[in-house]
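Hi everyone, sorry if this is the wrong subforum. Our group has a chain we'd like a structural model of before ordering constructs, and none of us has done structure prediction before. Sequence below.
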Amino acid sequence: MLKCPECAAVLDVDEDEVEEGEIMSCPECEVDLEVISVQPVQLNVISDDEDHDDDEDEEEPAKKDSESTDEEEEEDDDEE
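Answer:
Right subforum, don't worry. Here is the predicted structure as tokens:
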């Protein structure tokens, strides 16, 4: 018997038929779950917040790089 790690609802899933990496949703709390192990079956909550944070982290260095490039160009202009 599989239970949602978020709300502990019983999931109507045959443990013998799940595959590692499979994504499913809890019918009670509607959270997305990933099968991280099949022997024994273990589920992990997939959070949209984590994905959102990763996207922000990837964008920030690009902004910083462009800012430093602008500053360097200004310094070069001042030296001339």
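For your construct planning: Confidence is low (pLDDT under 50) at residues 50-55. DSSP finds one helix and five strands in the chain.
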